[in-house]
Design a protein that fits this description.
The complex is a heterotrimer of chains A (about 500), B (about 290) and C (about 300). With about 500 residues, chain A is an alpha/beta fold. Chain A has 15 helices and 20 strands. Chain A is globular. Helices cover about 45% and strands about 10% of the residues of chain C. In chain C, about 55% of the residues are buried. The chains are: A alpha/beta (about 500), B alpha/beta (about 290), C alpha/beta (about 300). Chains A and C meet through helix 9 of A and helix 1, helix 2, helix 3, helix 11 and helix 12 of C.
């Protein structure tokens, strides 16, 4: 067969396809270990589980089958006040005075206990939040433990964070976290706060409180002094009570840009320190010289990881025109072997959308994409009859003005745009108010460094995507927030520089 | 010889490398410490701020791309320019009521501060950035980048040292600055502009406006192209700035006007001031063959 | 074959066929290991794997007797449990005629390594003579080695010419082209060499990872690189090429992971022994052992399943 050294035109041949059929089906492989969950969860304040003063509870459901899992105590301002006061007391009497090496040992213990209870936490996370068990088991929980392990070692080395300056903890920090990585976001928040000598009042997201409250059990098991960590469950009002409480001197928030702005407004008249991890609309840029199969894997990982409920999701694929068709063909082929369904099945790649509300939002944005003229491609997979599920979705013929190219969808929906030159790619990538993350795929080293420099984003993944590590600072530019989490840069945000 | 008529100077603001009057045409009478009329100072408006931001936006990318070494040379040159005209600057401070010794001290400290930051340009990255030992097969490093255009709100007192202490850490890392100078003692900022113009600092990197805080602060707060606000304000001003900042998630780094600030203190300079006005960018790349 | 004889840089070849990111592909294949096979799907996979084994002995000490017992095992891997035959036995050329006595006319094919296996360092004429001899002795399949030296020095034309002449020498016999991936070293090289080979062989001829005689053999990573090359070649030309990982696959669990890679990369069309083989010896014992465990419900002791011959 003659060969030529030009890019083979025949590389894409739509006439032939591969058959990903049912010749060899995987049987159901449900995770069956006992998550040791309670029917009712109370607030964790001052080292003990206590009902809300109002006696109110709200239900939490399994988004994969819409059945109730447990009742969660609903904290109001009275409970938050109690939590902040014991946090303050723990800070002044115990935690703030404790030598760093002792604080560190508590964090090491917590890391170890999370590893001991890893499977329980993974299952609880999957049942409550809908993410596939393989992700909670292989990513969320081990990574949460790793964050405690990393920060444990910092507790007696804080003076290296800002050479020549005196550092002091803030006191009690108020933390509000989202539902996409419930335990991991808790770890991102609590581990550095405690390492720096702060006490914590944390509010988990309304739909995913269980692992946070289970974390209270870990604190008890670790013998953590009472009041150092306090968990108050509830909805937006509870969060507002936390951030606005006068004893809270530092607020750390992860969530939508909309709510982030709301918090910034409500704290404008105060001197509270803030870090904000907000939304994103990341561009994942594929050049024609990229290793395409790995790029496709990165695209899949970028947008379908955790059902796309990821603030740094690679939701805008920018692909160089000359390989656009080939990348789309490869992507569709890869999508056809993604398994959507029961999050508890070990072979499930894409689980349930976290809530009905989020499903409605995703559905609405996808409709807008169709209405605005983009071309819709969806996996043909069968979805479960009950529960909140959404097909992996890709849009082509997307232009920068479409809502699906501008708004954060927070679901398994990818918009594909094309570009011709690096400059055009950068221009499109930066044409957004967000600036959390970006991806670059190319075989050319100098181009990677140039692109990384030009992209206005806090994290740039080159020839990879959606990678996280406790040592690696994470956070955004522009309206994706400020401050960092992870690494020495993130830890310093939990200290006052005197 | 007949007595020569003295040539008075018309104070102008330094914006985009040029000297401008306020587009509004408004001026404020500036009196010297003895109450004598000294000059008409431009009373800048929100449109002047807008124009200054445009000028900064033009200069920004080029300034950020300069090598760290080059930025250091340029800042050091700025110190040379001021040192050479220290007496003139001291006189400008005395005009606003500084005693001679105080004026000289303010000028000297300002020059020292510039030299301090000139030395930081090629070092702060090595202190603030990092290579991060991630557990996976990736090379991972964090570098800083300038935020972009920084709005500086200088306090009324310390009209030179405070202004310099706020502007320098911003431009050290490649940011551009639009600054509102002291309202009560604006003249040193006018003179500073003239010295900037004769330094090697590219036009537009530092833009100095004079005017009333109450008129300017709301626009500083809400102008979305300003990516950070740094300076001094009273409780109400801080609230205004933070409320406006919320609308575009702007970074805010403010000191309280109601508490005394020792601008001569070591804490008022250094790498933490630079850190407050940079972004951290982390890049991952696989390590493979 | 109109092939240029001038040497071409590897880089130009990579530009043409595309490159592979090492870390990325290893992350991809790590996901195969997280697939969980239960009950029927596990039994299906294990049985499928048995039918794909090229049961191999490639030892200096091989004798007709050894080959006879190998053939018996290939035909009836176990006396209980209705376990299917393997795809083939794989032996040195001198043993082909002995193998023929036992499996000739059965569904178990006779494969023979030829072309101065494993180094390939013999004159082309000698290598071709070896191929012809093996075929005339009754080999249904020939496993050849590529000229790695030619590949690495950019003599792609020479490498392809040699394969093409072996294709001719094979006649009706199926050809398996061994890339010897450990000597190619990088995934980029493995992908590029796969394409060069695929362009001169026939539909359902094989590309194969290894001889089993070097330090590293088949891995999920290089298996994946070759599966993706086969996929891209098929989609571009319509020519289906078959795949044979060889060496180092000793456990049933490993074999299932390789098959999951096939299922998710090439799909149902390659889940048969016409398109996919395992070059292995010890593997068959473990496959049978695990099938017996599934059949009886009890974990099995190894001594009921004859111990493996070494080598690949």
């Amino acid at each position: 067969m003659p060969k030529t050294l030009s890019k083979s035109k025949a590389r894409v041949n739509p006439a032939r396809e591969l058959v990903f059929g049912d010749l060899w089906e995987y049987d159901p492989a449900p995770e069956t270990a006992d998550p040791k969950m309670k029917k009712k969860y109370d607030l964790f304040i001052n080292g003990a589980f206590v009902p809300a003063k109002s006696g109110k509870y709200f239900p939490t459901i399994n988004p994969a089958n819409e059945t109730k899992i447990a009742d969660i105590a609903l904290a109001d301002a009275v409970d938050v006040d109690a939590a902040c006061k014991v946090g303050q007391k723990a800070h002044t009497t115990v935690w703030g005075k404790m030598p760093g090496r002792e604080r560190g040992k508590y964090l090491y213990r917590i890391a170890r206990l999370l590893q001991d209870h890893a499977r329980e936490f993974a299952i609880a996370e999957t049942l409550d939040g809908g993410k596939p068990i393989k992700e909670s088991r292989d990513f969320d929980v081990p990574m949460a433990a790793a964050h405690f392990f990393y920060h444990a070692g910092w507790a007696d080395k804080l003076e290296f964070l800002s050479p020549g300056r005196q550092l002091a903890p803030h006191g009690v920090v108020g933390q509000v976290i989202p539902w996409n990585f419930p335990l991991l976001m808790l770890a991102w928040k609590i581990a550095p706060a405690l390492a720096a000598g702060n006490c914590v009042v944390l509010k988990p997201a309304e739909t995913t409180s269980i692992t946070a409250l289970k974390f209270g059990e870990i604190c008890q098991e670790a013998g953590l002094p009472n009041g150092v960590v306090n968990i108050v469950s509830g909805a937006g009002e509870t969060g507002a009570a936390v951030i606005n409480h006068p004893l809270i001197t530092k607020v750390a928030f992860t969530g939508s840009t909309e709510v982030g702005k709301l918090i910034m407004r409500s704290l404008a008249g105060t001197e509270k320190k803030m870090t904000m991890e907000l939304g994103g609309k990341a561009a994942n840029i594929v050049f024609d010289d990229a290793p395409l199969d790995q790029a496709v894997e990165g695209i899949v990982n970028g947008i379908f990881f955790n059902q796309g409920h990821v603030c740094c999701a690679g939701s805008r694929l920018l692909v160089q025109e000359s390989v656009a068709e080939e990348v789309l063909a490869k992507l569709k082929r890869r999508m056809s072997v993604l398994r959507v369904g029961d999050p508890m099945d070990k072979n499930t790649d894409i689980g349930a959308i976290n809530s009905r509300e989020q499903l409605i939002k995703i559905t609405e944005l996808v409709k807008s994409g169709v209405a605005e003229g983009a071309e819709l491609h969806q996996s043909a997979c069968k979805l479960p009859a009950r529960g909140f599920f959404f097909r992996p979705t890709v849009f082509t013929n997307v232009s920068m003005s479409h809502r699906i190219a501008r708004e954060e969808i927070f679901g398994p929906v990818l918009s594909i745009l094309t570009f011709r030159t690096p400059e055009e790619a950068v221009e499109k990538a930066n044409n957004t108010a967000y600036g959390l993350s970006a991806g670059v795929w190319t075989d050319k080293g100098s181009r990677i460094l140039k692109m990384s420099t030009l992209l206005k984003a806090g994290v740039v993944w080159a020839n990879t995507y959606n990678k996280f590590d406790p040592t690696s600072p994470f956070g955004g530019y522009k309206e994706s927030g400020f401050g960092r989490e992870g690494g020495k840069q993130g830890l310093l945000d939990y200290l006052k520089v005197c | 010889m007949s007595q020569r008529l003295h040539i008075t100077k018309t104070p102008k603001c330094y914006v985009g490398g040029a000297f401008i009057r306020s587009e509004s045409g408004r001026v404020t009478e500036l009196k010297d410490a003895s109450g004598q009329f000294f000059a008409n100072i431009p009373q800048c408006t929100r449109k002047d701020l807008r124009n200054a931001v445009e000028a900064a936006a033009k200069a920004g990318p080029g300034w950020a791309k300069r090598s760290a070494f080059n930025r250091g040379q340029i800042l050091y040159r700025l110190a040379e320019m001021i040192e050479a005209r220290a007496d003139e600057m001291a006189a400008a401070l005395m005009l606003g009521g500084f005693p001679p010794a105080g004026a000289a001290r303010e000028v000297t400290a300002s020059v020292e501060r510039i030299v301090h930051y000139a030395g930081w340009t090629d070092k702060y990255e090595q202190v603030l950035g990092s290579v991060n030992p991630v557990a996976s097969a990736h090379f991972n490093f964090t570098v800083t980048e300038p935020m972009g255009i920084v709005g500086v709100i200088a306090p009324d007192d310390s009209p030179l040292l405070a202004l310099i202490s706020l502007v320098l850490p911003a431009i050290t890392s490649g940011n551009c600055v639009v600054a509102l100078a002291s309202t009560t003692q604006p003249y040193p900022s006018i003179l500073l502009g003239e010295m900037l113009a004769t330094s090697d600092l590219p036009g537009g990197v530092v833009n100095l406006l004079t005017g009333f805080r109450s008129e300017m602060i709301p626009t500083f707060a809400t102008h979305e192209h300003l990516r950070a606000l740094s300076g001094v304000g009273n409780a109400e001003e801080r609230k205004t700035l933070r409320l406006g900042a919320a609308e575009s998630v702007k970074r805010v780094h403010l000191l309280k006007a109601e508490e005394p600030i020792d601008w001569f203190a070591d804490q008022r300079q250094g790498v933490e001031e630079i850190r407050a006005l940079v972004e951290f960018k982390t890049t991952w790349h696989p390590v493979g063959a | 074959m109109p092939i240029s004889q001038t040497s071409v840089s590897l880089r130009r070849l990579f530009d043409e066929v595309g490159t592979v990111d090492q870390v990325g592909i290893e992350e991809r294949v790590a996901k195969y290991a997280t697939r969980s096979l239960k009950k029927k799907s596990k039994v299906f996979g294990l049985r499928l794997a048995v039918t794909m084994v090229d049961l191999t002995t490639l030892e200096g000490k091989d004798t007709p007797g050894k080959v006879a017992s190998l053939c018996q095992k290939a035909l009836v891997p176990h006396d209980m449990g209705d376990i299917p035959s393997t795809a083939a036995v794989c032996v040195y050329p001198s043993m082909v005629r002995h193998a023929r006595k036992h499996v000739g006319g059965t569904q178990v094919k006779i494969a023979s390594v030829a072309t101065a296996f494993p180094s390939g360092q013999a004159p082309l004429k000698t290598r071709l003579a070896e191929v012809r001899a093996a075929v005339s002795d009754g080999a249904d399949e020939i496993d050849m080695v590529i000229n790695r030296g030619a590949f690495l020095s950019g003599e792609f034309g020479m490498m392809q010419d040699e394969i093409a002449t072996v294709v001719e020498a094979c006649g009706k016999a199926t050809l398996k082209v061994i890339l010897e991936v450990s000597e190619l070293e990088t995934y980029d090289n493995i992908r590029a060499a796969s394409f060069l080979a695929m362009r001169v062989i026939r539909p359902n001829d094989f590309i194969k990872t290894s001889t089993g005689k070097t330090s590293s053999n088949a891995t999920l990573g290089n298996n994946q690189v070759m599966l993706e090359a086969i996929r891209d070649h098929y989609l571009a030309t319509g020519v289906p090429i078959a795949m044979k990982p060889a060496g180092g696959i000793r456990t049933a669990k490993q074999a299932l992971q390789f098959l999951i890679a096939v299922k998710e990369t090439l799909g149902d069309g390659w889940l048969n022994n016409r398109r996919y083989r395992f070059g292995a010896s010890a593997l068959l014992n473990d496959l049978v052992r695990q099938l017996e465990k599934e059949r009886t419900g009890a974990y099995q002791a190894p001594w009921n399943f004859s111990e493996a011959t070494e080598g690949y």
